[in-house]
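Suppose you are handed only these lines of text.
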Amino acid sequence: MKRYYDVIIVGSGVAGCFTALHLPSGTDILMITKGDVEESDSYLAQGGICVLKDDKDYDSFFEDTLRAGHYENRKDSVDMMIRESRAVIEELMGEGVEFANQDGDLIYTREGAHSTNRILYHEDVTGREITSKLVARVMKLPNVELVTHAMMIDIICRDNVCDGVLIRVENEREPVPVFAGNVMWACGGIGGIYENSTNFPILTGDALAISILHHITLEHINYVQIHPTVLYSKKHERRFLISESVRGEGALLRDKNGDRFVNELLPRDLLSKAIYEQMEKDGTEHVWLDLTAITKVDVKKRFPNISEHCLDEGYDVTKDWIPVVPAQHYFMGGVYVDQNSHTSMRHLYAAGEVSCNGVHGANRLASNSLLESLVFAKAAAIYMAAHPDDEEYQGRVRIPSAKLLGFSLFGDNEGGPFETEDGDSSPAHIFMEKGFLTKEPPASLDELAKTYELTPDEYRDPELYAEKNKARIWNEIHNEERRQKEIKSKRFK
Ligand SMILES: Cc1cc2nc3c(=O)[nH]c(=O)nc-3n(C[C@H](O)[C@H](O)[C@H](O)COP(=O)(O)OP(=O)(O)OC[C@H]3O[C@@H](n4cnc5c(N)ncnc54)[C@H](O)[C@@H]3O)c2cc1C
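From them, the structure of the protein bound to flavin-adenine dinucleotide can be written out as follows.
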């Protein structure tokens, strides 16, 4: 890792990869990821990705997204996602992504709360198909340095301008400050803070905790989607999702007596509520999902991954009903961004599940999130490239592509050399007065830790740090829930 990059991308899921792929080829990019490259939720997406299949479907796609989102969606964002969808799908296919098709004609499937078939899929491993192809492309880009097991524990910022990221690399005790012209948060959701979640446990909402500390605007952080059907298990591990498209293809939900108790294609929040109510009524820890009711398609061929996983757990989906229960699945809220995926902090962008651009409102329509992540990551990259100085946003001067060499945040080289684009170099201090850079002495690690209500040990130790973050985000989500309830109860008095 160097000391300075044009852009740091935090996260290697679809949002991170699509950002890298849409930045100009001369952009010097650092991409970091907390675990292995495959440890992103993007790899886990099963059901598919929505697309505007023809212009006639626009109104219905728009309305379905809004209805699922309880009409709390930002309409401009929904419009942008739908209009950009075909271009994004074509780009993916150009990258070699294969979707189910019949003699070259794409096949569209359907999931809960969609009024028509408009979802493209690749067996039941759509996310793996898309993400593995994008990651492979990013790894070939000569301008991208990808570092795995490198965790963002903070940002370097002052006066609401983001200057870089403080990174803890696995097995190294001291975090490393890395500077950048722009920082992109593509660091996914918050499932890791829940006991029952379909997400990778490493996704603990770190960017949210950092936002809370630096007063970066968040939106709708109490809007957490519970997926109605994950495979019930007594084990403490990531919950295995039984995709909505299984119900879209005709699987039925049954209570303890084997009777149907609900319309299986209700929006996720309403269906989860109905399942919880049924479990309470029956005094059970799960309900049953009956895939033997699927008659239109061959279940094993259409859902090979689900069939195989259930078999490993002792259920043959062609004969047995499987036990299912709701679990945390998706985060609609997040770091507030505008349509360019710009956060409230200058030079800081966010896209994908970590961000809230308003597409999903209070509840996400199935298979809209891969699409939303891709569309808004692309928008961020295009905006960054067109506004290297972010001058429209901040009205300040920056030094694009300035090379900052041999510099340390913690004061071991007061006069680190610095070189501008024109090749001028001088033994200037990095915090010299030039636009956003100031003469203030850099903070020590212990001082930074104090500011963030952490002990230096918590700052250095990933587990202690994660615990503190979880508690912080958890409290914030519940405070927000309480605030919303108070507002509603006042309204109805
Ligand atoms: C089981 C499952 C099934 C799904 N099915 C679908 C579906 O069918 N269709 C659909 O549209 N959506 C689906 N989703 C949702 C969708 O997969 C995600 O919303 C989307 O992939 C998010 O992409 P992302 O790039 O924002 O985040 P992710 O793909 O989760 O990537 C996050 C990245 O950030 C990194 N990171 C996090 N914190 C840090 C840190 N502090 N420092 C460094 N790196 C960090 C992680 O290592 C990871 O690389 C599903 C989700 C799950 C869990």
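What can we learn from it? The mean pLDDT is 87. Residues 462-491 form the longest helix (30 residues).
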